[in-house]
Amino acid sequence: MFLRLKDDIKAVFDRDPAARSIPEVLFCYPGLHAIWFHRISHWFWKHEFFFIGRFISHMGRFFTGIEIHPGATIGKGFFIDHGMGVVIGETAEIGENVTLYHGVTLGGVSWEKTKRHPTIGDNVVIGSGAKVLGPFTVGKGSKIGSNSVVVREVPANSTVVGIPGRVVMATEKISERMDLEHGNLPDPEAKAISCLFDQIRELERKFAALSAEHESLKTSISGKN
């Protein structure tokens, strides 16, 4: 238990350059407090003390502005930055070293008493305001852009942006993985725009080649006449 708490504190220092001291982290990080409320409420939930689990979860929401259902499963190294407005549903499963920013929702789209919330793989980063809705998997190492709405499975090591969320990069380079590990998150929208410019340049190249071929044919026909 204490080792898990130590991992939670370490995650803050690893992923927030504003963290300066242990007392500051202990007393001034609502994301960390919400995780600790959840660790306790989840223990009671697993041992079928459902009311106590929900009540502790409710208290955590009151003090932090972050709502995590006690039934959700969360791995080590989980970090919520800022955190206000984060909602994590009952059947959500979160892997290790996952980062969420404020306003993220891991929600469901069904009222059935089944698996209805997403499974988030290891090392996933979900930007502020993003909504991940449904019982599918977000593959490990993926990044979801701010305010995206994701309603279908995301392959591993992908970048997703937009409403509805669409994959704009299906793989990542080694340098990008190193950036992620050091907290330097890429801008998925900038990458998407860059891809569009690449396509435009390719179309311009083809157009120039076709124009040159057309002019050559015109010259050839004129010479024959």
Task: Report what the structure shows.
The structure is a single chain. By secondary structure, the protein is of the alpha/beta class. It has two domains: 2-185, UDP N-Acetylglucosamine Acyltransferase, domain 1; 187-225. It has six helices and 15 strands. The protein has helices spanning 2-15, 22-28, 30-46, 50-64, 174-181, 188-224; strands at 67-68, 73-74, 79-81, 87-88, 93-94, 99-101, 105-107, 119-120, 125-126, 131-133, 137-138, 143-144, 149-150, 159-161, 166-169. Strands 3-6-9-12-14-15 form a six-stranded mixed sheet. β14 (159-161) and β15 (166-169) form a beta hairpin. α3 (30-46) runs antiparallel to α4 (50-64). The longest helix has 37 residues, at 188-224. The radius of gyration is 23 Å and the shape is elongated. The N and C termini lie far apart (91 Å). The mean pLDDT is 85.
